[in-house]
Amino acid sequence: MRKILNGNQMVLGTCYYPEHWPEHLWEEDLRRMLACGIKVIRIAEFAWSKIEPTEGEFTYTFFDKFLELAEKVGMQVIFCTPTATPPAWLTEKYPEVLNANIDGVLYRHGARRHYNYNSPIYREKTRIIVEKSASHYASHPAVIGWQIDNEINCEKDVFYSESDSAAFRVFLREKYETLEKLNRAWGTNFWNQTYTDWEEIHVPRTTYSDSTNPHEVLDYTRFISASARGYVKLQSDIVRKYIKPGDFITTNGLFGNLDNHKMREESLDFMTYDSYPNFAYTKEDYERFSRTMQDRMWSKNLMEVRSTSPVFGIMEQQSGANGWNTRMAAPTPKPGQMTLWTMQSVAHGADFISFFRWRTCTMGTEIYWHGILDYSGRDNRRLQEVKDIYKKFQSIQQIAGSRYMAQVAVLKDYDNIWDAQLDVWHQDVEKVSQQSLFIAAQKSHTPMDYVYMDDEKTSTSLSDYTVVFYPHPTILSPDRVRMLEEYVAQGGTLVLGCRSGYKDMTGQCVMDRLPGLLQNLTAVDIPEYTRTCPGDEPVLIRWEDDLLKAEVFTDQLAAQGGREKTSRILGMYENCYFTGTPALISNSYGEGRVYYYGSVFTEQAAETFLRKLGVKKPYKELLELPEGCELAVREKDGKQYFFVLNYKKEPVQIHVRRRMKNLYDGIDLQGWMQMEAYGTLVLEYNRNM
Ligand code: GAL
Predict the structure, then answer these.
(1) What is the tens place of the pLDDT at every residue in 564-617?
(2) Beta strand residue intervals within 447-522, DSSP E
(3) CA 155 to ligand 1 centroid distance, Å
(4) E-only strand ranges, 489-619
(5) What is the distance in A from the centroid of ligand 1 to the CA of 325?
(6) Percentage helix, strand, coil for the chain under 3-state DSSP, each rounded to 5
């Protein structure tokens, strides 16, 4: 059985760097961790040179000694492959392993993640170090699992080395076979971009106004994702040969230009995430997040993690102030915030929480990225809070393995995410809708999931959801449309926003009536559309008693002729030159219904849909909470566990309408109660009682 994420246990861990500390501290550190309930540590992710100090010379004594100690004191270890930081001897001798900026200037030794995934030499050196480490350490009794590399695609998620151009050509040849097909897919007739030889193709290079062919960039992004996944698989295939039964393979974090879902399916037993909600209070990010929901925005990231692994782990959970010597300046978490952020992770499905890091580093770039302990290592308030978290964990052991429950989902897919990165029109609609749907759901205590579409998925992945939003599926394939049709036909409710279906998989626009492949399902026609401009009068949409303000974009709709039996116009534009034009059309299709809304989902529109479709506040009979609190629900064996999280720095009043058990103290409660500043609660509710 797995030692963590086994459905039976909630476990605490921390990140430890034996190579940063004098050996005489190791035992004391491990014993102190155990004394406060930390049972797992992660080690070695940046320590290549401790195993291969010079090329081809392997020595295992450093970590052998450490693992022996770990075993002696009873500490369990997640061992890492060290490939995020290649040694100086390697990059100096083989500069081709380095990543480069868009102009081909190499990123040199001295920071981290400076390698590229496609260099044949780096792949070979990776194969060797992973083989050596795994074959030596995986059988050690203290080792319980492996982390591959560290934060794949973090720091840089674009690659411009020579090896990347060479590999990009191979990727494109496999995909298109002929240059004719590639030229067509990339629309190279435009601006005379036609390729006549594969060697003329490169990863994107500096172009005037950064306007490289968008269809090419879309394929390039798919290529980066495939490269990163391939690199992780190369490693996990090796580690897999050596791990003991029950041991696991994971990696940490979700980053851009990477299909994290496919990576998880191909190579990892589950995903772990690095959760730093304190970014909301850093110098650079304060403005961005204070306008939204500050640290509560991290729940959006945790929803993403959950979509890759329903039960997951946190490899790095915030335990101190953030800061590098070069950037970021955030305060120390206030009393209660470490617990709040830990329980935020747990509420969304984490059964393993490992704090970053045990001691704060006294050297290098991360001297301000604080761990549990400060430089001196003395006992402090945050250590005390870890002890208290452990006590809480002991009281909630029974929730291990329970699943987050939601009846509303937002559909996503990587083609559209990547298209939106390079198409500012697409980006503008997507940004508003994604953020607003999340915030509307959060404020109204409506649990929500993300579900990722791909061509292999079937409609069963949606069948648990009553209502599914697919805000702006600009790019669509026939397979995805078939899946949506199936979901609706079987009784689901699908809500689509403006700009749906106007591109094909290459990112080119379709020469069809809009919404393209969705015409049949929606019974909608879109004869006209426009962006809204800052100086324009606000566009208003009337939907029964609700008057919605449309932002960013409007599709002016028409009901398709001949579909009157099933389709209904529900909303109209109230002003501008399209007064009286339909803005919302619903169509019943099989057992279900689809709504086409001609604009973006602002918070107001999102709230209106949740309310009118009857999925807003599903637990209002049980709990009444102020907007500033998050509600999350995990379920297991007929029992529901309600997580209430108060992100406010003031106490709040909540109303527990039905009798529930407060798991922290085992006492039943009902009625009004006060939650302290940054307070958390886990309430058990037995539906059958
Ligand atoms: C994470 C990373 C850690 C450490 C931490 C603080 O992104 O995995 O190694 O760098 O951030 O910066």
Answers:
(1) 999 999 999 999 999 999 999 999 999 999 999 999 999 999 999 999 999 999
(2) 448-452, 467-470, 493-496
(3) 10
(4) 493-496, 524-531, 539-543, 546-550, 553-559, 567-573, 582-589, 592-597
(5) 13
(6) 35, 25, 40
The residue written with tokens 């993403």 in the block is 304
**Alpha-carbon span 636 to 487, nearest angstrom:** 26
Contact between 42 and 52 under an 8 Å Cβ cutoff? The reply is no
Q: For ligand 1, atom 1, which residue shows the shortest CA distance?
A: 274
Ligand 1 contacts CB of residue 274 (under 6 A): yes
Return all residues near 34 (Cβ < 8 A) that are at least 6 apart.
73, 74, 75
Q: Is 316 in the pocket of ligand 1 (CB under 6 A)?
A: yes
Beta partners for residue 674, in sequence order: 653
Task: Check pocket membership of 45 for ligand 1, CB cut-off 6 A.
Answer: no
Residue 283 has pLDDT above 90, yes or no: no
Number of helices (H) and strands (E), helices first, in the chain?
Answer: 18, 26
What's the CA-to-centroid distance between 316 and ligand 1, angstroms? 8
Q: Is the CB of 213 under 6 A from ligand 1?
A: no
Nearest residue to 578 via CA among 528, 535, 513 = 528
Going along 219-263, which residue ranges are E strands? 248-250
| φ, ψ for residue 661, nearest 5 deg | -100, 125
Positive/negative CA dihedral, 136, 140, 146, 147: negative
The catalytic residue positions are 151, 316
Residue nearest to atom 9 of ligand 1 (CA): 150
Which numbered atom of ligand 1 lies nearest the CA of 151?
8
- Measured at the CA of 31, the angle between CA 25 and CA 36, to 5 degrees, comes to 125
Q: Is the pTM of this model over 0.90?
A: yes
149: Cβ below 6 Å to ligand 1? no
Q: What is the pLDDT of residues 160-175, one digit of tens each?
A: 999 999 999 999 999 9
Burial (0-12, 13-18, 19+ Cβ within 10 Å), 95: middle
57 Cα: distance to centroid of ligand 1 (angstroms): 28
- Ligand 1 proximity of 275 Cβ (cutoff 6 Å): no
Beta bridge partners of 272: 252, 313
Is the CB of residue 654 less than 8 Å from the CB of residue 672?
A: yes
pLDDT in tens, 308-359: 999 999 999 999 999 999 999 999 999 999 999 999 999 999 999 999 999 9
Task: Extract the tokens encoding 448.
Answer: 């929500």
If you measure from the C-alpha of residue 172 to the centroid of ligand 1, how many angstroms do you get, rounded to a whole number?
Answer: 34
The β-bridge partners of 524 are 559
